[in-house]
Structures are given as C-alpha cells and as structure tokens.
C-alpha cells in the first residue's frame, strides 16, 4: 500500500484549521460577489426550491465563467422557477435557452434529473451529498457536495478547479493535480477544513478565493486572507526548505504529492508553481462541409433549412445547416460531390456539385475538437418540397434561426454567409472568395 502523505501536506493542527476557517469566512462576509444564485439560496425559505436554485447554478457554472452564466441563470429561473416547471418543459425548449452556453448535455441531464425527482422521488430533492450523487443523473461528487452544503447545511467539503488551486498552494502539492493520489488527498483536506456551523458559506468562500484572489496567473497574495497558512507563499518569501528534511517532511522515498524531481521549484514562478497539471492532449482536427440552403418565403424574405442533430453525441439535439463530416485530405472536387449527394437526400432531387457556392471556412474550437466548417451556399428557386430525410427539418427565417436551439458555430456560419451576400451585392466589392480563406469574423470560441 502507498505510504500516507507526509504531515507537511495536511492540516493536522486543530488550532490552524480553526484560524483558517475564521479568517476565510470573515473575508467572505466582507468581499463576496453579489450573485443571483447566492441571493436565492439566502432568501428562499423552501428547502427544495433552494436546492433547485443552487443545482441549476452549479450545472451552468461547470466549465463556464460566472459573467457568462448570470444572464442564462436569470432567464432560466424566470422561465422554470421550480423543479416541477422544468420537468414539464420539452428538450427543445431547454436547448433553445441553453444555446450559446456550451456543453449542451448539461441542460439535457438537468431536465432528465428534474423529471426523475418529480416522477420517482415525490418532487423532493435528496438532502445529502451521497443521495444526490446516487439518485440524480449528471450530478457528480462536487455538484452533490455543493448542493448539500449550501442548500441543506451538510458539513461536507467540495473540490472544484478553484479549490484544487487553493489547496495545492496552501500545502505545496506539486504532483499532477488530476492524479488519484492528489484528488483523494484534496477531498480529505476539504472535508477536514469545512466549517461545521457554516459549511455552505465556507465552501463558497474557498471557491470565491480561488476565483478572485488565488487566480491561476498573477495571484493577489497581498490580499489573501489565509496567506499565513500558505506554504507556497512562505516558500516564495523565504526560499527553498532546508536540504535536510524533518522526519515529518518529504525526502524519504517517493512522495505522491510532491513535484517530480524533473520539475523542481521555479523561483521565478512563486506560488504559481502549484498546482501542476499533466500536459493536455491537443484537440483533434475535424472538417465538416456545411451548406446554407436558402429559399424565398413570404414577402420574398429569405428562409434557411435547418436539420436536427442526433439525440446523443456532440451538440445532441441541436439544429444546424445540413452538414457532412469530411476526410482531412479530401480534394475540393470530391468534397463538393459528397456534399451534393448529402443534400440530395434532403431535397429529394439531384444537386449539381458545381452549383454549390463556396463561402469560406469557419473555425470553432470545442474543448477537445478543432472544428473547421467548410461553408457553401445554395439558393433555391420556386417552391421547395423536402425529401423523406431521416432527421427532423424545417425552414426558418433569420429571426427564427436565432431563436432556435442552434450552436454558436452555426451562428458563425450564417454570419459568414450574410457577409458574403452583402459583398456580392455591393458594386464596389463582389470579389470571389479564394479557396481556403477564413470567413471574416468567424474566429474560434
């Protein structure tokens, strides 16, 4: 069995733990940000409504910045203020409101879990972290701990990215922060530190500290309320620890929490030596041919064909222009032919590859995919009857397109198409876009 972590990495002094709690909570009471989910959690008397409000915020905040989430959260809670209201919504409605927030499976799982609470749990939220994680789909260890501590007062710790950073700096934990040994240790520490009388406030304070003071780059150590407990800060001030270690210090054998010998302390980095992360895998490159099919609707206003993606996988259930994955080394002529064949299934009639007009390339970066959309357009004359395609499809106006559950990438595609159309209609421009050109304004996200 692996040796237990040395004492220097732990919080083993009760007096230090109590002092850290007091300093952090006092700072939080003075400096916490005014956020809508905190206001709801503080004022909502009904425990289940309070738990739901916190739950929605925690799901939205996964992988998404606070500033982005606020508007989505307010609109969500206005539309579905209770679990019961959300359980009656359709997935289409959920996707429409979620559009642009990213990681779309989060909204889907949130709705699925709400339906389960209403249909199987008599409308009552589970009250402990253990039950929340076990009974609600899409609720992991962190989310369960956050809901249980903030909404129901359970004295359980939480570990998210901000907490990882704070704890690794407090105790000079320099091993890969995603390794099982480090993760287990951080959860143990979070459960030791959490204040028993104010667990929700303490957990939010720890996360707030990581979000506003103990930030990844250029941390504000001078403003940190717990710097006197921070080993990384002391090491920055006083240099390396003595070469002859204490019996409780690291140095005998391999410590699972210390930086590897090949990555020693870099004095120029200071506290940002921690945490250490494993190198990320580069996102895989993908190419997709996309066609903006356009017809004239009522009053000659343009309408666009959008089709629904499969119910699982990337961007599940969202709407997009007819699209087709491409091989990386496909020649332009063959690319057009494959897209024309794909469009024939939607239109129910042959499509000439030469009739496809090249718009440009739109780049969109997902967390694990570097996606290039090769954008074409095809204007259609007269009344268009769609063929018997496999997926749902519909014609939409520009306003209806933006109100639909479409991804940010598809909004970029339409923007590139409209820009090209404006250029062609301008007498001063009208230049033909060269192959391989990136559509202006279609950057990565």
UniProtKB/TrEMBL annotation:
Co-factor binding details: Binds 1 [4Fe-4S] cluster.
Compartmental location: Mitochondrion; Nucleus
Region (Disordered): 413-445
Reaction it catalyzes: Hydrolyzes free adenine bases from 7,8-dihydro-8-oxoguanine:adenine mismatched double-stranded DNA, leaving an apurinic site
InterPro entries to which the protein is assigned, alphabetical: DNA_glycosylase (IPR011257), Endonuclease-III-like_CS2 (IPR004036), Endonuclease3_FeS-loop_motif (IPR003651), HhH-GPD_domain (IPR003265), HhH_base_excis_C (IPR023170), HhH_motif (IPR000445), MIG/MutY (IPR044298), MutY_C (IPR029119)
Cofactor list: [4Fe-4S] cluster
Residue ranges constituting the HhH-GPD domain according to the UniProt record: 60-212
Top-level division of the source organism's lineage: Eukaryota
Alphabetical UniProt keywords: 4Fe-4S, DNA damage, DNA repair, Glycosidase, Hydrolase, Iron, Iron-sulfur, Metal-binding, Mitochondrion, Nucleus
SMART domains: ENDO3c (SM00478), FES (SM00525)
GO CC annotations on file: mitochondrion; nucleus
An example Gene Ontology biological process: mismatch repair
Enzyme class label: hydrolase
EC number: 3.2.2.31
GO terms assigned for molecular function: 4 iron, 4 sulfur cluster binding; 8-oxo-7,8-dihydroguanine DNA N-glycosylase activity; adenine/guanine mispair binding; metal ion binding; oxidized purine DNA binding; purine-specific mismatch base pair DNA N-glycosylase activity
Basic and acidic residues bias spans: 415-426
Gene3D superfamilies membership: Helix-hairpin-Helix base-excision DNA repair enzymes (C-terminal), Hypothetical protein, domain 2, Nucleoside Triphosphate Pyrophosphohydrolase
Function noted in UniProt: Adenine glycosylase active on G-A mispairs.
Family to which this protein belongs: Belongs to the Nth/MutY family.
Protein name: Adenine DNA glycosylase
This protein's encoding gene: Mutyh
């Amino acid at each position: 069995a692996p040796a237990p972590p040395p004492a220097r990495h732990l919080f083993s002094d009760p007096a230090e733990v109590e002092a850290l709690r007091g300093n952090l909570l006092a700072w939080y009471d003075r400096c916490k940000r005014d956020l809508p989910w905190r206001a709801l959690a503080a004022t909502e008397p009904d425990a289940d409504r309070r738990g739901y409000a916190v739950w929605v915020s925690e799901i939205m905040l996964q992988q998404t910045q606070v500033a982005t989430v606020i508007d989505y959260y307010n609109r969500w809670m206005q539309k579905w203020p209770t679990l019961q209201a959300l359980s009656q919504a359709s997935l289409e409605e959920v996707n429409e409101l979620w559009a642009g927030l990213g990681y779309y499976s989060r909204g889907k799982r949130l709705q699925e879990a709400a339906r389960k609470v209403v249909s199987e749990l008599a409308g009552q939220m589970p009250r402990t972290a253990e039950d929340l994680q076990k009974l609600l789909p899409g609720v992991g260890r962190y989310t369960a701990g956050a809901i249980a501590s903030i909404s129901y007062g359970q004295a359980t710790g939480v570990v998210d990215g901000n907490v990882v950073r704070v704890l690794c700096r407090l105790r000079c934990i320099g091993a890969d922060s995603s390794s099982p040994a480090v993760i287990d240790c951080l959860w143990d520490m979070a459960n030791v530190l959490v204040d028993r009388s104010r667990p929700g406030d303490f957990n939010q304070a720890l996360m707030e500290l990581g979000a506003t003071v103990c930030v990844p780059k250029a941390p504000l150590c001078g403003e940190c309320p717990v710097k006197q407990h921070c080993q990384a800060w002391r090491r920055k001030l006083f240099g390396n620890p003595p070469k002859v270690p204490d019996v409780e210090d690291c140095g005998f054998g391999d410590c699972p929490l210390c930086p590897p010998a090949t990555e020693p302390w870099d004095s120029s980095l200071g506290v940002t030596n921690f945490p250490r992360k494993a190198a990320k895998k580069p996102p895989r490159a993908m190419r997709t041919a996309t066609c903006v099919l356009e017809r004239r609707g009522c009053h000659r206003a343009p309408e666009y064909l959008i089709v629904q993606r499969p119910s699982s996988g990337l961007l599940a259930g969202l709407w997009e222009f007819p699209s087709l994955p491409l091989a990386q080394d496909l020649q332009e002529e063959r690319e057009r032919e494959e897209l024309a064949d794909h469009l024939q299934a939607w239109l129910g009639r042959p499509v000439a590859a030469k009739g496809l007009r090249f718009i440009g390339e739109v780049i969109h970066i997902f967390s694990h995919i570097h996606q290039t959309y090769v954008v074409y357009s095809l204007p259609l004359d007269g009344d268009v009857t769609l063929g018997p395609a496999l997926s749902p499809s519909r014609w939409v106006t520009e306003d209806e397109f933006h109100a639909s559950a479409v991804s940010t990438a598809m909004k970029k595609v339409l923007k590139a198409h409209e820009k090209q159309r404006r250029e062609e209609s301008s007498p001063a421009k009208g230049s033909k876009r060269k192959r391989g050109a990136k559509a202006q304004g279609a950057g990565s996200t």
